Amino acid sequence: MLNLSERGAKMPASPIRKLVPYAEAAKKRGIKVYHLNIGQPDIKTPEIAFEAIKNFEMKTAEYTHSAGIESYRKGLAGYYKNVGIDINYEDIMITTGGSEAIIFTFMTTLNPGDEVIIPEPYYTNYNGFAMQAGIKIVPVTSYIEDGFALPPIADFEKLITPKTKAVLVCNPNNPTGYLYSKEELQQLRDLVIKHNLFLFADEVYREFCYDGHEHFSVLNLDGLEEHAVLFDSVSKRYSECGIRIGALISRNKKIIEAALKYGQARLSPPLFGQIAAEASLQAGEEYFKEVYDEYLERRNYIINAVNKIDGVFAPMPKGSFYAILSLPVESAEDFCVWLLNDFNYEGETVMLAPAQGFYATPGAGKNQARLAYVLKIEDLKRSVKILEEALKVYKNK
Amino acid sequence: MLNLSERGAKMPASPIRKLVPYAEAAKKRGIKVYHLNIGQPDIKTPEIAFEAIKNFEMKTAEYTHSAGIESYRKGLAGYYKNVGIDINYEDIMITTGGSEAIIFTFMTTLNPGDEVIIPEPYYTNYNGFAMQAGIKIVPVTSYIEDGFALPPIADFEKLITPKTKAVLVCNPNNPTGYLYSKEELQQLRDLVIKHNLFLFADEVYREFCYDGHEHFSVLNLDGLEEHAVLFDSVSKRYSECGIRIGALISRNKKIIEAALKYGQARLSPPLFGQIAAEASLQAGEEYFKEVYDEYLERRNYIINAVNKIDGVFAPMPKGSFYAILSLPVESAEDFCVWLLNDFNYEGETVMLAPAQGFYATPGAGKNQARLAYVLKIEDLKRSVKILEEALKVYKNK
Is 0.80 surpassed by the pTM of this model? Predict the structure, then answer.
């Protein structure tokens, strides 16, 4: 009998996927399921990206440079300059999705057993990357009543041990939709300087900030040249989830140099994806405006609508395209399973992601669920109606 | 002062890349460099792969299934059936290059500190993957005088400790060009059963076996359902290095299940690459025949030609498109640097990969270099001439 490794046996399944078999069973029974549970937008990829692929002439699909195609890295530096982040293309390493940027950064900056503090609820796949790197995520809880604002710095201080090496924030936040302010980020800057920590920021939702709030990048904090690492991806910016193109960006040359060695081991990021991503840099203002307006309308609609349902509360997100709802149920997970397994409204139901999986603290967020407003308005309207009817039935069960 | 992690600071640069600055400097001086040092073939990708990308209609470049597009997995199972490997598509997980198949397998089967025995010289990037997984590679030396045949099983036995969890072979071999026979693989089977080890095989050069020798897959060894894991890639098969599509294949369902959890954390393998790889399944016999004949001609030419150079010896490789030469020099690395830095023949020179980087045992392979016959015959002819002239000059230095 051959056993898996501990990290193979213990690797957690994504909590979002736990419900997939129920959704599949519902579909088999002929139920239509509205997927508010995942971050796969229905938004169109810029046409220019597909055209670039179609028009690219080559005889051999060769490896690219391990840090990415130079013209793309230069173009990307231009994109950052445009959004107010002044970096050189040599500070950029193109990665296979944002995921790889995270893994490579964990590998180059953290030893096995080291700790990273992350505000919870947080993006669940950080757990998988932590398992892969053998590091420990230490959660600092943010609360729905505060709209998931940055927890007080004193709460971070309490968690710092000799093993603490970094703080990681996702900004704008998945799953909460919270946008950390410049002031909050400055508090984090002071904290990481005081304790000599790295500050990692996952800024893949940069384009999606609402109500006049401006995104402030971790790379624009003074005095963090050595500390700050930015994880980025084109997945959400251009609705290009499948092409697997991200970036690892830091002014700390030692990090980029070491990450590149990991990059050389895996040879190169995907060629076709880089071609599409480079072309997407030309997508232009109209593309973003259209996408932005669409998300804004969806956000405004769905957050207002769910807050009108008896017992439901969702803080208005300032960014990304997610929101956390608190529900008038004891266990949101049980409710989400029930929605798929035992309920339908006129042959339709809704799939949400139970929020508990986004918390590391046992029991936290038990009555909460995450929704992604990645569907068109009419589908969101229908989803809200279904949710409302479902809660009526569930209450009287 | 913020320090990198130990694994960041110690991550080895690929030994092949160590010479890149010298090659770049030579090019700047106007010297033409023939690259026999890397495995980037000049062979054309099947036209059908590019056509599939150009003809694919989509609005949104979405994530694919984390285990890969189902139709591609099914098609790939058909490919394996065709080459005599009877597996189900559910035993296949599509990965981002062969690299990811190796990482995921290490993660799911090995704990940090565990040992994997690999015949040396071996593909240097295994060192990077081992560093990432925190495992230890234990080399068992194969020798140029034996044509790099499998070392005696007694040599493996001597290296087995309580930490030993697996044996890894690359077959056909990069960097040696050796093709392990069915009998050698059966010896490995008996060994891994006796000691309850996993047996990993990197078979990405499967298509390139010469002189009537047939490739025997680790998946066709009896009694290894639980033990055997196959790493594969389309990079060399279809000359699609840049698309980053590989596969992790095992009949051990626990491995596939656990690897899929790592796959879910990184969401999906590259979409465009999968489309190209799936289309390539239709490339047909003529494509392979043409490519095969080209490599065969190159091998026959270059191995015979280098063996005619005074003091040079290269065993005739039975597979892949690499060969190891022993050179009449004390240090092949010094010689390779000199070739780039201090020598040219009529304005041209040759770049080889010093073989020392492929050995883990200090000092082993010091007078050896690897060449990849990935250039067209006329370039190979020119390269041999340059090498011959260079050795004359070097000897009299």
Answer: yes
